[in-house]
Amino acid sequence: MAWVAPLIYLHITLFLFILEMGHGTEEDSRMLGVTAPGDIIIGGIFPVHEDVDKMNNSFAPHLQPCIRFVERSLVKVLAMINAIELMNKSPLLADVNITLGYRILDSCSDVSTALRATADFTQRADCYAGSNTCDQLVMAVVGASYSELSIAIARQLTLKMIPQISYSSTAVILSDKSRFPAFLRTIPNDEHQTAAMVSLLSTYDWNWVGVVTTDGNYGLSALDHFFSHATEKGICVAFKSILPQSVTSQDVGSAISQTATTILTNPKVQVIVSFAKPTLMMHLYQELKNQTLRAGQNMASMRRVWVASDSWSSSSSVIKHTTLEDIGHIVGFTFKSGDLSSFSEYLSRLEAAGHDYTRNNTFMQEFYMQLNASEGSGGAELVSKAVNTLRKHIHADTVFSVEMAVSAIAQAMVSICRSRDCQTPGTVQPWEVLKALWMQKFKLREKTYQFDSGGDINLGYDVTMWRSEGGKIHVHDVVAEYHPQNNNFTHTNHNTIQQLWDLKHIISKCSNSCIPGEFKKTAEGQHTCCYECINCTANYYSNDTDMDECLSCDTNIEWSPEGSSSCIPKALLVFSWQDGFAVVLLTFAALGILLALLVSALFLNQRDTPVVKAAGGPLSQIILFSLVISHISAMLFVGRPNSFRCKARQVLFGISFTLCVSCILVKTLQILLAFQFDPELQEVLRRLYQPYVIVSICVALQATTCICWLVLKSPFNHTIKHPTTLLEDCNEGSYLAFGVMLGYIAVLALVCFICAFKGRKLPQQYNEAKFITFSMLLYLISWLLFVPIYVTTSGVYLPAVEMVVILISNYGVLSCHFLPKCYIILFKKEQNTKSAFRKNLYEYSNKTAVAVSVSAVTNCRDVSSCTILHKGSITRHCLRRTISI
Length: 885
Known about the structure:
By secondary structure, this protein is α/β, with parallel strands linked by helices. The chain has 5 domains: 275 residues, Rossmann fold (3-Layer(aba) Sandwich); 190 residues, Response regulator (Rossmann fold, 3-Layer(aba) Sandwich); 57 residues, Tumor Necrosis Factor Receptor, subunit A, domain 2; 248 residues, Up-down Bundle (Rhopdopsin 7-helix transmembrane proteins), CATH 1.20.1070.10; 53 residues. The strands form 9 sheets. The protein has an 8-stranded mixed sheet, with helices on both faces. A 6-stranded mixed sheet has the order 1-5-2-6-7-8, with helices on both faces. It has a 3-stranded mixed sheet with strand order 27-29-28. It starts with a helix and ends with a helix.
C-alpha cells in the first residue's frame, strides 16, 4: 500500500507544525518562516496569509494566529529563495568567497505582525539547531508587499539604517527620503501609475468615473494623486468608495454592499478605477451579481470597464463566483516583467525534490497540508499538484521585482566584500550596504539598473487586458506599454490595437459631448463634467468637442452665425471688373472713347468745311479730348480701389468735364456774338470774347479747387465693415470739396444753358444752340438726380451711380454736339458747303428782316425809312458773319 508511508509522513509533519505553532504562541519572538544559513543574511517579509485572527481579546502581548493562506504570496517567497540560490552559485559571490542566507517571515497582511517580524530582524537572532546564523544581523530586507506595512516597517528599519527593498509597495510617501532614507523599491511609485490611468481615461474620453480604494496609506495616497491628475485632464470622479483595509473588519460587508449599490445606481459611470485588494474585489463582484439578480435586472447592467491597479490586476481569483462576461472589461496595470525561465526551472526542481524541500520551509508544509485536506492526495501526486497550483499563481512582474531586489543586495555586498573579509560577523554594517545600494548600479540578465533620487526604479508599466477563453481567464495578455517619461502608450502589436479598440464604443460621461459650435455651461455646484450644451452666439465659434467657452472671431475680417464651428471670412465686396453691370458700363465707356476718337479724326479731316468751323473748329477737338479723359475717369470707378484710383477718378472727371463745359460756354458766347443785333451789346461781347482765355480761367478755377481738395483732405480708400461683408470703397475725404467741384461744373452748365436757350431760333442747319440747350439740360437733370441717390445709396454699386451719371453727361455732349454734325458731313455733303451755308444764312436774314420791319412799322411814323434802316443793318451784319465763316 504505497499511500501509507506518505500519509504517515504527513501526520508527523502536521504534528511538528502544531508543536511549532504552539511554541510560537508561547514565545513571541519565534515566528514561522523560512531560513537558510549564509555569511550574509537577507530578511524577507511576505503576506503568506491574508489576515490574522483577532478574536483573542487578551491584553497581554501575543502573536495572533494567521488565517487564509495565499498561494500567490508563497510564489513570491520561492522567487526570493530561487534568486538567492542563483546568486550563491554565481561567480560573482564566489570571487569574494561569501554566501547569502535568508530569513523570510510572514507579515500576514497585518501591521502588528509585520512589526514583530521587523523586530526579529533588528535584534541579534538566537541560535537555531543546524544553523550558523548566531549573532548575525540581517543586512537588508526584501518587502513588504503592501504600502501600509512597508511604511511601518521602514520607520523601524530606519533606526538602524537597514536597507529595505520593496517589490510592490507603491505609496508615493515612501519616495520621501527625508522620512524614509533606508527605503528602496524596484518599481515606480503610484504617482506614475495614477498618471498612467488618467492618461488611459483621457485617451478614450472617459471623464465620468468612479473610484474604489481602501482606507490605508496606499489607497488614500493613490486616491489623492488620482484626483490631482484627473483634475488636470478634466476628468471628474462621480463617486469614491473607501473600503476597510482589513478584509475581516466588521464594516467590510456593509461597505462592499454600499459600494455595489452606488455602482449600480450610477449607470452613466461606465468606468471604475480600483486600488482595492484582490479579496475585496472578489467580494465586490459577488455583491454586484447578487444585487443585480435580486433586482431582477439583466446581468449586462453590471458590466463596467474596470481599471485595475497593480494590487489586483494579475489576480484572476477575483472572478471566482462570476464570469468576465458579467463583469465587463478589466484593464490592468502591472509592473514590467522579466524572464521566468530560471524560476520555472526552480519549480521543476522543487517538484522533483518532493517533501524533502519542506524541511526548513514551514510555508510549504502548511501549503501541502492545505492541499492534502482539500484534494485527499498524497506523495508525489500531492507535490505535483502543489507545484502546478503554484505555476498558476505566478505573477511575472512580481517575480522579476523580487529578483531585482536580491540582485541589488548581492552586488552591493560584493562591492563591499572585495576590500574586506565579510565572513566574520560584524565586519559589515547595514548602513554600508545601504550606501552601496545608493551609489552603485547593478546588473540583472545583462541589463543595468540603478535606484533614482527617490529610491525607485521606474521602468514604466505593462497594460494588460483580461480575456476569457474556454472558461479560463487570461490576465497576463500585455496589450500596451506605458512610458512615464513621455506619458504615452505604445501598442505591443497589431492585434492588441484591436482589443483596445473594442473599448472605443463605451461612453462614460455625465453629459453628452458638446459638438463643435456649442460650449459647456455648468450649473453652480455641479461637477464640471455635468453641463448643458449651449450654441455659440453670432461671431463666436467652438472648433472642438466639449469646449468650456466659445472663441471670438476677428470681426474685422471674419464672422460666424449662431452655433458655428468656425469663422467665415467676410466676403470682400468691390465693384469689380467681373461684375456684369460693370462690364456693361465699361463697354459704354470704351465705346464713348472710340466714338470721340473717330469724331476727332473726322473733324480733323473736314476741318475746313463750314460744319466743322460752325462747331467751333479747334475747340471741338478740345471738347473731344476732354470727353476721352472723362470716359477714362469713369473707368476708374471699376475695380478694387486704392489711394491713387480714389484721388484720380474725381479730379480727372472734374477737370476734364470743366474743360468740356468751358469750351461749350465759349461756343454759346460765340453764337450770341454772331447773331446779336444790338450794336452796343455786340461791341461789349466782342471785347470780352477771348475763347482760350475764358477756357483757361474756367479750368484754372476748377484745378485750384481740386488741388486744395487733394492737399487739405484728399480722397482715400477705406474698408466699410458690415456684419458679413467687407466693402472696399473710396471715401471722398472732403464732401464739401466734392460738392464745390460738381457745383462749379453745374454753374458753368447753367450759364451755357441760359445762353444757348437765347440762341435757340438761329439758322437750323448750323444752329448748335438747341443741341447745347438739350445737352446741358440733360447734364443738369442727371446730376440733380445723382445727389439724392448718392446720399441715400450704399453698397457695392455706389461707384456705379456716379459712373452712370458721368457716362450720361459724356454721351449727352457727344450725341448733341457732334453726331448731328457727323451726319451732315457723312450723309448731307451738299449742305456742308459755303454756298449752302450762305443761302441758309441769307434766308434766315430775310426772314428776320421782315420780322423786324413789321415791328418797326408799328413803332415808326416813317415806315419806309425804318424798313430801309433795319434791313440795311441786318444785311450788313449777316454779311460780315458770312465772311468770317
